[in-house]
Fold this protein.
Amino acid sequence: MEAPTLASTLLTACLRIIKLCLVVGTGILAAQTTRSVWDGVYTSAQAERGATLYANNCASCHGSALGGGESAPPLTGGEFSSNWNSLTVGDLFERIRTTMPADRPGKLTREQDADVLAYMFSVSEFPPGKAELEHQTEALKQIRIEAKP
Amino acid sequence: MYQRTLLLLLCVTASIFCQQPSTKNGEWPYYTADLKGTKYSPADQINAGNFNQLEVAWRFKTDNFGTHPEYKLEGTPVMVKGVLYTTAGTRRSVVALDAKTGEVIWAYSLREGNRAAIAPRQLSGRGVSYWTDGKGDDRVVFVTTGYRLVVLNAHTGQPISSFGKNGIVDLKEGMVTGTGQQIDLETGEAGLHATPLVVKDVVIVGSSFKEGMTVVTHNNTKGNVRAFDVRSGKLLWTFNTIPRPGEFGNDTWENGSWATNGNTGVWTQMTVDEDLGLVYLPVETPTSDFYGGQRPGNNLFAESLVCVDLKTGKRKWHFQVVHHPIWDYDLSSAPILADINVGGKAIKAVALPSKEAFLYVFDRVTGEPVWPIEERAVPQSDVPGEKTSPTQPFPTKPPAYGRQYVKVPDDLIDFTPELRAQAKDNVARYKTGPMFLPPIVGDNNLIGALTLGTASGGTNWPGAGYDPETHIVYAQANQSALFPISMRTPPEGFSDIRYVMGRNGTEFRVSEGPGFGSAADAPQQPRVAPVKPAPAKPATAPAASVGALTVQGLSILKPPYGVISAINLDRGDLQWQVPYGETPDVVRNSAALRGLNIGNTGQAGSVGLVVTKTLVILGDSQITTTPQHPRGAMLRAYDKATGREVGAVLMPAPQSGSPMTYVVDGKQYIVVAVSGGAYSGEYIAYSLPSNN
């Protein structure tokens, strides 16, 4: 049996470090994908900003109370839940970002879209938290939409 | 010699007959299957025994037929000679697809710029129509977002240059306001997303306008129905749905108000009796949907079924189902032509499904109701200036096939005493009452008149179906479409109408309608809103909690939220009625209902259906996830005789267009448009596995 060389020792150490990184990284990822809208994913201040944006850009079709119009769907309640339950906040964010407001898609910035989402979540009584809702789609795709915790 | 001539004649007749598109050939040549509005196909390969084996034959995504995807795809293709024709995308392109594979044969679109972006009816619409001379001149007819009538060569997708100007007739020409002022061809308000009615060599088109909740003027564009020659595009006749001086019904617009009001179009599908030469027009509400103080009188032909002569457009008869309309009870569905037998008497009838969930049935030759329709006293309005009709028509048969108003407390949720108590508290914030409860001037104390089945109840634009062999109408009805109506004065300078939708004591908001602002050429300018809205209040106390129409996330109403009915037209009664779809997740998973057996509540929503030899086929309007199926909406088959569900197949999104069926090379297909939520528009074709 040959004694381990310096090179092989270093290689083994590197592999262990990589393995550890993978385990930790996977753990972090797993923790991220288990977040849901019930985990305090926005702040009250952000929802307040979103309320104003909603009133000026969304309410004419979706209604002041988010109950929907004759054609625009409700943004809270059973039908909203039916459409989005078990999808991610990222899916909803992309839907808003690429198609809303209907008369001027892309008018709002990513940050403003996230604020509107925060307001919608507050109306649906998802609890606020300490950190603002992010505005990067991939990050938002780690947050599930669930009807109930 | 005589025999040979007769034989030749028979051969020629048979040859011509064979070239006429028909459901008998396995085709689906009209939006409603045939000119009679039945949505019936005799195809029977797909049946109760094999429906569960259906699989996706092909799918056609519409995302790239416009600048952005469409999430409200409502088209129903027609299928003739192995080719499907339909509309797609925010550009409202027309596509021809191979009916067996979904492969694109050709596509056509017209870039209309701002004219489309400001159109009152946007997105891809309901589809196209088909015309043939039986000798190879085959045409596809449709109306663009910007209200142009276009006729295309069905083989190439190119405009027929001899029709109109290079294949196009500008339908805004001839549309007027006031006493006859031509609207601006670019910015004037008029559109249509129904398919044109093509019969013989005639194309008949209606007209539609923006939603009437917060209108900027009562003197809007006037609706009409027009007929054009399918070969040349020449205008053949116009029927004024708001009669002019000297025309029948003009006096029902008191104080000369015909001259200062508009709308009253025909935005849904029309039907025609080709043999009798009679066309049936379902007319909508005048300006505005909820306030008629500036148009006293019954306002013919608003919310009337009107029968006109196919050749001349002259009125033969009419029946107004709502006098002086102020509930948005637009006649929403294609009238169904039915040859029935009542008490031993053969009657050529026309049956009209409705938002009211009444099926109005008339002798289609004379206009006489088949069963008496009684004028009954109804509540009267106290909105200043409004003069409601003292009575409204109530059919005595068939019975209503859906809920028509909120009966308190009987119609309120009763899963638990606590839920009912909460519902009663919430409803106390509204005025309630029987059908035809008029709008009120609402405020923060009394929120509005709580109506049901008005704007979007009963049977809406997808319409109903009919089996011509058994004389049974099949209709889906939304019976949980609560619609609070409150009126308020508009802000200074916003409108010349005295009342618009809204509540006193709250911030005024403009309400927009279906798909508004969603055309391929958006962005656009919003409607004039001279009052700068104040910043909204923070979200700490959601407005939804005040007088909410839900309790603990559940509808304040009892289920079933939607129903499917079979209505026997020989007897005028309900043969069966079952919940539509299955219990929504929000109900099934409700913490408030844990441990309770609540059964099938059905679903809200309005969807169309197909009637085949043995089945009624329609899809869910909501996505569910159950132990029986993964996340999705189900396309379901119901036994025509009993209403029992006999099969279901998964769709990735809710049904958003009315389905159709056809047979090509011995194989039956069902095509349905799906979309909604995160899922953009897609046509999906289902068929049985090849080894079946």
In short: Chain A has a mean pLDDT of 81. Strands of chain A lie at 35-36, 143-144.
